[in-house]
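Interim report, section 4.2 (structural modelling).
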Amino acid sequence: MKKHNFSAGPCILPKEVLLKASEAVMDFNGSGLSLVEISHRSKDFVAVMENARSLALELLDLKDKGYKALFLQGGASLEFLMVAYNLLEKKAGYLNTGTWSDKAIKEAKLFGDVVEVGSSKDEKFTYIPKEYSVPSDLDYLHITSNNTIYGTQFKKFPKTDCPLVCDMSSDIFSRTMDFSQFDLIYAGAQKNMGPAGTTLVIVKEDILGQVSRKIPSMLDYQVHIAKDSMFNTPSVFAVYTSMLTLEWLKNLGGIAAIEEVNEKKARLLYSEIDLNPVFKGYANIEDRSLMNATFNITDEVLKSTFDTMLKEAGINGLNGHRSVGGYRASMYNALSLESVGVLVDVMSEMERKG
Ligand SMILES: Cc1ncc(COP(=O)(O)O)c(C=O)c1O
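Predicted structure of the assembly:
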């Protein structure tokens, strides 16, 4: 039976990417050797790393604009710490829009003063704060563009005089925008790029080197830049698979092309959520995420029937995050419109039964 994978991450990747990646595990570039058993310093792997870094900048339209792309390790969670290590001298601002920003704030507090410029904690992170003012003396302002757990997403970004840092883990490469409004973007690979194990960091070089503390080499962006993202052994499989996904996206027509599909998928699902009395959306309508749609079932008695119907339709990964409950449909780039159609059919069938 065909599976429809709505998992929040690690999550669905394009089939052709998985196929090519699995071929490379057995025989990389016809060398007779596996991708995972050759030196990361070999000509073939250095080319992979260079291509992956270059594609990332190209797709975001950040080439020749003073940015560097790095593929690091430690997940987005290590970036919570590295951002502050590298940029926080006195005071940083954070917009708190959920669990992930909360975690980033906790790490930053180890390095200096942290101001919560805005927060949606009062309403269980169902919305994106809009009424706030950014202090003029910040070293940087940090935001989380898409809140994977609560299903909210920034549609407009704050204008700042200080560097703007964005955790884009769950919506990078999914929608068009002017990416040059950010000075540092980071994203764990395991949503729109590849398997877990590498984190893409895009950083404008001129914001670095301004803190007075000593930074351990592995946590220093400048060290990774100087070594072309090969200071230590990179996560070769995750970087290679990410490169394949970025190539897949480029061949589709880039971010603008996938954005059209992502908008169609989100429109289809949200209109079902809004019209079907069995379900209720979680997030504020204007702040809804195109990537993670969160919703509840209005009558808990119907839950086990719905869960059985989901299983019978081959739908996987629809449970909400354990901290929120309910349901969450993650519609990352590789998920087809057809899969969303299958989910919507099950939801309307549920209405007939309910
Ligand atoms: C927005 C966001 N930030 C950070 C993280 C943490 O990422 P990692 O597990 O790669 O550290 C996640 C994980 O889902 C996330 O969705």
